[in-house]
User: Fold this.
Amino acid sequence: MRVLVAMSGGVDSSVVAALLTEQGHEVIGATLQLYDHGAAIQKKGACCAGQDIRDARDVADGLGIPHYVLDRETRFRQAVIEDFADSYARGETPIPCIRCNQTVKFQDLTALAEDLGCEALATGHYAQRLDGPDGSPELHRAADPVRDQSYFLAHTTRDQLSRVLFPLGGLTSKAEVRAHAARLGVPVAEKPDSQDICFVPEGRYDALVGKLRPEALEPGEIVDESGAVLGTHRGIARYTVGQGRGLGVSAAERLFVTALDPARRRVVVGHRADLPVEEVALGEVNWLIAPPEGAFRCEAKLRGREQPQPATATWDGTTLHLRPDSPAVAAPGQAAVLYDGSRVLAGGFIRRRAVDRAGRAA
Amino acid sequence: MTPLDLDANATEPLRPEARDALLRALATGGNPSSVHGGGRAARRILEEARRAVAGRFGGEVVFTSGGTEANALALHALSPGRRVLLGATEHAAVRAAAPQGASALPVHGDGTLDLAALEAALRGGPPALVCAMAANNETGVLHPLAEVAALCRSHGALLHVDAVQAARLSAELPGNTLALSGHKLGGPPGAGALVLRGGLALTPLIPGGGQEQGRRGGTEALPAIAGLAAALLAPYDAPRLASLRDAVEAALGEGVVIAGKDAPRLPNTVLAVLPGVAAETVVIALDLAGVRVSAGAACSSGKVARSHVLEAMGFGEDAGSGIRLSLPWNAPDDAPERFRRAWEGVRARLSSRRPALAT
Assistant:
């Protein structure tokens, strides 16, 4: 079959292109240009630098497959970077890699694959797309738990998923990828794994946010949950729910950010015990199963680096109400993903809780 | 099946005349600046090429590394002390070489230069240098150069003409300077020329060892230059290409807008605008179907950008939806039919999500 492979220039997607070529498929490589890397400063460890585009092209040339560079600067700026700043201005902590997967990657590239007569879009992500008993696509965690990226893919729609391949999802170790790379002659440049936000140089996201949404960097009050003013902050975009460092207020006990109130430009702080919440509301829910009626049991993951925890969920048609068995810390704007064992059931974004006049999170 | 080349404006296939001249020059070797017999033999080839170019356009000829350098040399030499006015659809080689403060002259919706705006810009103010391309590389639209030249003359302005895409079409190109490129004519890449008329003085962009009468340093790329001259003189069957071009346009079908369709155009060039479709998608889809075209503009990384030419022509949102089909000098007679077959497959797929393209 004809397959479009999203090639980042890294070893994972290069191995995907090489494996599919080896299997006799007609492979077409595509690399996204997401921003002007000259402007974004050369930085190591983030995806999508200019060097990566050249690396991807070199790999494609080595495999003898066509390769195209897709200019997605405008789309990326609107769908990811502006959303990133808007989210901070709303008092949230955004998760731009998911927005990017949702829009620039899976929405756009599955459409492009269709336009190009490709039967599938393949990426180097670590997750498994399995066919369910009725033939409908299921998203599962990667076989290698260390490398699992299903949390970042839970917003892929079922329609997109039906046309997506994750050839690395079944590999059980990094060594397997390296072995494939060696066998297929794919260069394995020693590159650090991408963990930073690719478009934010040196992790300094505040300058970017300040340029797009200056109000998010305006100073305001730090208040406790009764509304008493404890100090001033340097812009709500610099704080995230659960944060316990760098608050600049002294108290007998360590204080944590419990809520952000953009309307009054306030950072609400409280004690560690005030952080966990009984219920988390999720919006923009993407269902990968038929939404169950009534309450159902699942495991929920509320941030990238934690294990899913048991919870009960209820779907009211617009909002998914999640009650973790043990109250949990939830940062608005972050993604929450519901699992049943290895299978992804749904993904959503954590909604901000209403803040009452005193500043208390309701 | 061999791919169908419809991207001649990117580079023309090498013409046999140019290939012969190139091989002869390679066999001769030598440095035209040498005093000895080897130098004389090389110089003979160089001056023969110079006479060929000068014979066609008149004036003196300075050989360069290509069209970009020829344009840059003209701007470098002619712009000091002058206001620079350049057409909004000029090639990047001209736009990037223009000094800061250069003003863009608008074009009409059909891509031709707005003469009233030119005249208004020329009136009053210090003497100007006007840059107007003979034929646009994306649309093939020809500017009304005779009128442009007359306006320049009457206002004491100099005229530089980027003739890279139009040099084969007519020897009647006006302008104080003309820029040419070898590989756009079917010569090898690596040589271009700046034609100078009226005894214009020229300060070099690249000084060096006094070659080209001190106007362009560096040993001349003799084989490429010989190829340029041979390609320039090779017969070019414009009427045949124009009829193939018309057939290609007909094959595009409904819902496709031809930029500058009613303006005088090159015989080989079509810029087809597909509203709502990213040019990049079509270029890739056609490549996979064995037809080589380009988007209006592409940078060296291969990424497709919005076309400043379509923007200047008022295409707005659709400035990123133009694909350029340019027939090479040796386009086969069945090129339109082969294009039609590939395009119909691509179009059928694209139209499944874009009703405007369905016919």
